[in-house]
Specification:
Blueprint lengths: L1 E5 L6 H17 L3 E5 L4 H10 L6 E5 H7 L8 H6 L2 H4 L3 H10 L5 E6 L1 E6 H6 L9 H13 L3 E4 L5 H24 L6 H15 L13 H7 L3 E7 L2 H9 L5 E4 L13 E3 L1 E7 L6 H12 L1 H11 L19 H5 L3 E3 L12 H13 L4 H11 L1
Parallel strand pairs: 1-2, 1-3, 6-7, 9-11
Antiparallel strand pairs: 3-10, 4-10, 5-7, 5-8
Helix pairs in contact: 1-14, 3-6, 9-10, 10-17, 11-12, 13-14, 16-17
Length: 380
């Protein structure tokens, strides 16, 4: 018998699909699986349970947290993954990230998300935009064309002001550069802070941001659903979220956040995330557990998970994507690297809220670039 502690509640669609896969596995192998549906409370009890030697064969949790916080408590999966040719069909950016964080493959990522700029394809067509922008200059040209047809080019919610600014700043100095600033300060000594801030100010002054931006979440993103705005920066759950909120019928496109002139990072690096399955280093049933993990995270089960939960397949052999995410596929497949949430701005919890408050004022048009830099200096 295997014991599985799950991050899902048993009423969630993910849990139902996983339970079906477990039932099939038991029927195929005779191996029973005891499931503890812990929900998001798992994070509060898992560390202590593993340290106490609780009987847990495997668990799932945020894949980066597993790599950062649990790598000494779980097995390396490198040999078993090699045996089944895992790297040949995995969405490569995710195991690559796990190995960078933990030094080896300590979990199998599944149910990934990606992020970028989501847009209404019909509006792009009406504005005569034939090519998705790759650079900031091209993006500004797109904004001008959208403004010309009488729609707000870019919507913005208050909940995501630090998300967008983190993305933009990381394009200039890289995520490690952002983390360095957040930890050590010296904002005023880095010329790119003011430059990134001025880019946001320019969006506001040129009328490329919605007149209501930043709206109280989710009012901003809903402007796209109501066809008052054409684009929004967010993650791959946003088409479903907006569709549910507004009952819209939009054909969605998506492109990766543009690169900036003279910046460090290309537009093939994005904030992405996933859940991950890990095997307790004390498990006596490692191979059997790994086989079950592979069943859940690849092939037919992975395909079903993507389609029924509106997600992205983790097995790149599964070519059918949810209809709302069909426009995400090319941008996702182009990725070469990953950003954390807010691209490094969260590195220092002590000033996280101060940074967000400064970003909010920036998007509201209350700051000059220098005033924004000064506010960050004061935060440290």
């Amino acid at each position: 018998e295997l014991t599985y502690w799950s991050m899902w509640n048993n009423t969630e669609p993910q849990a139902k699909i996983i339970q079906e896969a477990i039932d099939e596995y038991t029927e195929e192998t005779g191996i029973k699986v005891k499931v503890e549906w812990k929900g998001r409370d798992l994070g509060t009890v898992l560390q202590a349970a593993l340290e106490a030697g609780e009987n847990i064969d495997f668990f799932d949790w945020d894949y980066q947290k597993i790599a950062d916080e649990y790598s000494d408590k779980v097995l390396s999966l490198e040999d078993m993954a090699k045996e089944v040719g895992y790297d040949d069909y995995a969405a490569s950016v995710f195991p690559k990230a796990v190995r960078e964080w933990a030094g080896e493959l300590v979990c199998i990522p599944y149910q990934p998300y990606t992020s970028g700029i989501f847009y209404n394809k019909a509006m792009f067509k009406e504005a005569g935009i034939e090519k998705e922008p790759q650079t900031w200059a091209e993006f500004l040209d797109v904004c001008e064309k959208l403004k010309g047809i009488g729609v707000a080019p870019l919507a913005q919610d208050d909940a995501y002001v630090d998300y967008v600014f983190g993305y933009h700043l990381a394009r200039y100095i890289g995520q490690d550069g952002v983390k360095e600033l957040v930890k050590n300060g010296n904002w005023a000594e880095n010329e790119y802070i003011a430059k990134a801030a001025q880019d946001i100010i320019d969006l506001k002054e040129k009328g490329y941001l919605s007149q209501y931006a930043p709206g109280a979440y989710p009012e901003g993103e809903n402007e796209v659903g109501y066809e008052e705005a054409a684009m929004v920066v967010n993650a791959s759950w946003v088409p479903s979220e907006i569709t549910n909120n507004t009952q819209c019928n939009i054909e969605w496109g998506m492109f990766n956040y543009p690169s900036v002139d003279g910046g460090k990072d290309a537009n093939t690096i994005a904030n992405v995330g996933a859940q991950g399955y890990a095997i307790n280093k004390n498990s006596k049933n490692a191979q059997e557990t790994f086989d079950l993990i592979m069943k859940i995270t690849s092939g037919e089960v992975d395909q079903k998970m993507a389609l029924e939960t509106g997600g992205i397949p983790s097995d790149n052999r599964n070519e059918e994507w949810p209809e709302l995410l069909s426009g995400v596929k090319d941008a996702f497949n182009a990725l070469t690297g990953v950003y954390d949430w807010n691209a490094g701005l969260n590195e220092n919890p002590d000033i996280k809220e101060a940074i967000k408050a400064s970003c909010l004022k920036l998007f509201e048009g209350q700051y000059t670039a220098q005033q924004f830099v000064d506010s960050l200096e004061n935060a440290n």
